[in-house]
Structure formats: C-alpha cells, structure tokens
Amino acid sequence: MAALKVLQVVGFKNSGKTTLALNLLEQAKNKGKTVAFIKHHGHGGPLELPKADTDSMRLLGSGADCSIAYGDGIIQMHQQKQTATVEELVDYASLGNPDLILVEGFKEAPFEKIVLLRSVEDSLELQKLQNIVLAIAPEELQLDNIRLILQNDSKLLQNWFANWMVIDNEGI
C-alpha cells in the first residue's frame, strides 16, 4: 500500500497559494481522488466559530476540549488546543482515508511542497525550505536543483500534478 500523499502549497502573502490549491483540488477531484485540505489561518486571531447557542458550541463552551457534530453527511469538529503541529493536523485529516492531503501554508513542515515565487528575493528565502518538488514563478529564475514551471503554463502544471498524484512516493 502506498504512503498517504501530502503536498504543500507555500509562498508569501498574495502569491496565489489559495488559487493554486483550489485548482489542484479541482484537478484531483476530477480524477476521482478523495482529498483532505489543511489551511494555515495566517490572518491573526482565532477562526470564526458557529454561533455560541448551537449545541456543539455550548459543549465546547462548557469545557469540552473537543466537540464533534454529525448531520446529513457532514462531520464538524471543533477542538481547543493551544498549539497544534501540521503533522497532528495531517493525522486528523487522514482519519477520513483520503487519497491525498493538500496543505496550504506551514512553510517549515517536512512534506513535499510547491513553492510560489513572485521574485528573486522570494526564491532566495524559500529555497531554504525542505522537500521542494516544484517552484512556480512569473518568469525564468535560476534555481538550484528545483524544477520551475512558469505561472502561466497551466498545462505543464496540470501534467506535473497528474503525474505526482500517481507516482508512489513511499520512502521519500
């Protein structure tokens, strides 16, 4: 059995991470893949929660460390935890037995990643990261041992991702 495939999309603010991640998600779903998605909330402050008067939020507010609600095919989980690693989040996401997990953000995490570059300065900073399997940039950049696709070459990117989804990366 192949290892669970995890692919990160990383870059600086407004580099197109969400747009790319949504495109990859759509492509994976069109290939019949089940996909879990993890997004780093980098906007400061806690996430918005459902209204406080819902049963699941009343339970959380009454001291439950985790509240899970299920209805009509949707599982909703809220957990209070001061810190969580991306590895823990991947473990949570893997509970649904997806074919792959897409992660937006968490630059320092150890998973294979696509790096979105806006400039040479970005490339200098982001080349310090581990497990970069692809860089996407608006123009040709000189990168050491990192494959580069121009951001307007959507066909090449689609082909790369289609191949990535089927290549067994067990042991990487």
TrEMBL record:
What top-level branch of life does the organism fall under?
Bacteria
Q: What is this protein called?
A: Molybdopterin-guanine dinucleotide biosynthesis protein B
Species source reads Planococcus wigleyi
The record's listing under NCBIfam families reads:
mobB (TIGR00176)
What residues does the Molybdopterin-guanine dinucleotide biosynthesis protein B (MobB) domain cover? 6-137
PANTHER family membership: MOLYBDOPTERIN-GUANINE DINUCLEOTIDE BIOSYNTHESIS ADAPTER PROTEIN, MOLYBDOPTERIN-GUANINE DINUCLEOTIDE BIOSYNTHESIS ADAPTER PROTEIN-RELATED
